[in-house]
Q: What sequence folds into this?
């Protein structure tokens, strides 16, 4: 049935009263039985109110069902907030949202000043470069202000030559007392050399040539314990293995060479386990 607007002077038919008035109004009954007795043939969309239960019901074309109130959609996030596949939604404040465009493959979701952002993760290496540089000719290596935020340190020396002693000599924290021990094994010799109670750790033989390299690892350098150093070096005449030890319950904040170098490069890494 259609909705009809009556004008003054229009004739009023019985069908109009039944359809346009009776069926389009909300009839009031005590219960469902009274409703069914009065409305033998309901029409789709007809309403009735039952005072016994306070229920508002409607006829859906097949049966009487509870009339649910209209859903409030004012608090829903509109679909237009996202504009492309992969977009994310996040809050920018109380009751305010915006979208974050999708990142690229292998990026990870992080926070940048409290705001979600896609970032490219660092490489899989657990090492973080602390500092690097070149070693001037006839200069010592002196690295200070080493942060204590890592588990271990790795000092890498590349393209070096030693202009002074033919070896690499290391002190920590500027400590010059006789607290250091060193052990050295050379690839071209079966002998093991050992030095005890010296003012530095020393690994030598062949490092006065050009194009030498060495790696010094300082495990657990930030712990208050006796410190150990692992040494591996290579030069034109030898591969050099060694260890070092110093009796000092100090964390390492400075690494200094006593020997001067003929030049080269250095990199100091922090390792997080």
A:
């Amino acid at each position: 049935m259609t909705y009809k607007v009556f004008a003054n002077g229009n004739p009023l038919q019985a069908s109009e009263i039944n359809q346009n008035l009776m069926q389009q109004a909300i009839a009031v009954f005590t219960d469902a039985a009274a409703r069914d007795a009065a409305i033998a043939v309901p029409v789709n969309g007809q309403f009735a109110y039952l005072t016994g239960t306070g229920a508002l019901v409607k006829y859906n074309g097949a049966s009487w069902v509870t009339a649910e109130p209209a859903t409030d959609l004012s608090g829903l996030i509109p679909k237009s907030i996202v504009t492309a596949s992969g977009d994310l939604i996040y809050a920018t404040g109380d009751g305010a949202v915006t979208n974050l465009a999708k990142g690229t493959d292998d990026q990870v979701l992080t926070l940048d000043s409290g705001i979600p952002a896609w970032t490219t993760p660092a490489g899989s290496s657990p090492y973080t470069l602390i500092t690097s540089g070149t070693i001037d000719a006839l200069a010592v290596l002196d690295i200070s202000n080493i942060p204590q935020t890592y588990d271990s340190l790795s000092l890498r020396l590349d393209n070096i030559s030693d202009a002074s002693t033919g070896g690499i000599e290391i002190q920590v924290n500027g400590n010059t007392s006789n607290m250091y021990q060193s052990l050295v094994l050379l690839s071209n010799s079966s002998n093991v050399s050992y030095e005890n109670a010296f003012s530095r750790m020393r690994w030598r033989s062949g490092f006065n040539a050009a194009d030498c390299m060495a790696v010094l690892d300082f495990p657990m350098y930030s712990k208050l314990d006796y410190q150990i150093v692992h040494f591996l070096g290579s030069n034109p005449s030898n591969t050099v293995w060694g260890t070092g030890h110093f009796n000092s319950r100090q964390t390492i904040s400075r690494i200094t060479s006593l020997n001067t170098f003929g030049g080269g490069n250095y990199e100091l890494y922090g390792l997080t386990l």
In short: The mean pLDDT is 86.
